[in-house]
Every structure is written in C-alpha cells, then in structure tokens.
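Changelog-adjacent note: as of this version, every example in the card shows the full chain rather than a window. The one below runs 390 residues end to end.
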Amino acid sequence: MALDYFAPGVYVEEVDRGSRPIDGVSMSVGGFVGFTEDVRGDAELFKPMMVTNWSQYQEYFAKAGSDGFTDFDAYLPFAVQGWFANGGGRCWVVSIGTKLPGSPLPPPEETASKLMTSGGKPSLMINLKLPEAVDGALALPASTGSRIVVSVVESEPKPLPDDAPEGTDPPLNNGEYFSILVKDGGEILERYDNLTMNPQAETAVADYVLTALESSEYVTIANISQSGQPLSRRPNNGAYEIAPPPYIARLEHMARDVQGQRSDKTGIQGIFEVDEVAMIACPDLMRAYQDGLMDLDQVHGVMEMLVSNCENSFPGPAFRMVVLDPPPVKPGKNDNLAVAPEQQKPQDVATWFEHVLIVALCLAHFIILGLKLPTLVTVVDRLWCRLRGT
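Full-length structure tokens:
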C-alpha cells in the first residue's frame, strides 16, 4: 500500500526481503598445537603440517615403531587420535617441541640411531654432530627440510697397491666389509669405503669404522656390538635417519613458542594462517600449566589471543571456533595453583567460565557504549583479579 509522505509524522513501511535461510558452515578441518614425541620426515618444528589420518600423524610426529604418545603424557597426541577416532577428517598439527621446557638434556644413547646386524643384534650407534653448546643447550643445525641419512652398502677390501709384488693374492672378501654414505636428501655429503668392524684390521686391507668416521663433520659413531667375528657384528645394509637431539626450550620461552609469529607462520599464529582451519585447540596449554611452566596470567593471555584471532579471522574462513580447556584450579582458593583432577569439581569449571563470560560481556558492552579505554581496562582487570582470587 502506497504511503502519503506529504503530511508531517513518523512512517513505518514494511519491506518483504524474502526468506533468509541459515547457511551451513564447514567446521571439518581442525588445528592442534602442542607437544609431540618426535618431528621427522617432512614435518618441521613450530610449522603447521597437514595430517589426514592417525598413521600419517605417526609418520611425522612419532618415533619409528612407536605408538605416537610421549613419555611425559603430552595431551596433543590424545587429542589428534580422538579427532580421527570420532570421524574427523584432515587436520593441521604444530609441534612446539618433543620435551617439556626446562627438561634435562637426554644422554646421547637415548637419541641415537642404532644400526643392527642382520641377526637383529646391536652393531653401531650414530648421533648427529652438533655445534657447540650455547648456555647449556645444544644448538640445532640450520633446517634444510630433511634429516641426515646414513646408508650402509656393500663394499670390499682395499685393492692391492700398485707396487705390490707380482703374484700377490688380493685380500679375500668374506662379506664383512661395508661402506657408509652420509646423505642430506639426494646429496652425498661424505663417503667412507672399505670399512670393517674389526679394530685390529690392517690398514692396507680395510679401515676400522670408528677410526674412519672420526673425521666426519656430520655424525659421531660408537661401537655397541657384542662379541663375535667382524662379519657377525657388521651393520645390516639399509638407510638410517639420524635424528637430532630434541628441542628443549627455556622456561621463559614457553609462552612465545606457543604463540609463534605470523610472519614465520609458526605456533598458534601459524595455524591461523591456514585458511581452511576452522576449529583450533591447544591441549598442552594445560599440560604446561600443570607443571608450572606457565602461570595463570600467561594461560589467560594465550586464550585471549585465540579468541581474538577467531573474531578477526580475515582472510580465513568466516567462522572459526576455539576449544578452551578450563585450568585445573579452584577459583579464589590456593592462589589458583593447579590441583589434581579429582580435586576439581564441576562447580569450579562453571565458576571459571562464568567469570570468563562476564569479562567477555563486559568488553562487548563497553564497546557498544563507547566508553573510554582506561575505564574498560580497569574494570576488566578487576574482574580478572576477582577470578584469580587476588
């Protein structure tokens, strides 16, 4: 019906805009940040890696032949396994380390690659040779996108010298001799031929493997073979990936490693740079808090960053969500120190989320009312202090 706008007054005109159905939003791609057992293959520390199933996760973030779970009960492997077990599709995983910050450096034999004989007995132990220690922590070599690989192949005794008397028989090849090739990707960095496990071998015939590899710039080697003849102690042919010692961050770097940098696409910031990721979780945030590696203020800061990045996800998906784990605390008691799971009650979780919701609503109302920033900061700070019981 046409309205007459010539007379003074207030007019209401209804305009039919048609139906506005709710469009479905895809939340099928997850993002996880936390500790893993290992970082190998094409995966890199702190960088997002796409994983499509649990076996692929083990290929990138578990030690060879392992179940993928850490010896310090990191939560990330359980979260990823649960994601796939409950029908989840592909996800992106960021490893922030394979040991908790501040952990002691493991002994060389723990991180060594062990070469076995054809009979499955120990033969050689190989470690990556690293630069000198800095502030008590080993410095890792520059990342080349691949790991050093040691290959063991067939070899033979050294040939007779040119001045050998005529009629001298060459050394007998009884199968104990081998060569070691040190590779980086497809490039051969070092090659050692005519090697043997016999420390008393004549240098004119073969070189003892430990003596020959003393000059290596990339690996260190140790003889862990048991008693027996050189042939029975010879390492089996094959390619062996040499893992570097685990990255162990200093305690003060924990929050920085979790957060990462957008320019380098690392940590949580790196996950948010993956446009298809719609659900994000940082399960080991609570693992770090339980061990006192992060305080409650740092945990709150990371959570706030997660929520803020979800709200400002451009140019990522229009809808993103973050899964937040409530800290294992009893709000207002025990100075908010972590408590055992059986000591935390559902009421404590409800109280935590109630205060978090109050802070979020307060932020929204202050923005709507356009109040000054100092007033906003003061109120939020008081609410946070109330939550912490301080």
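Structural remarks: The CA atoms of residues 128 and 333 lie 48 Å apart.
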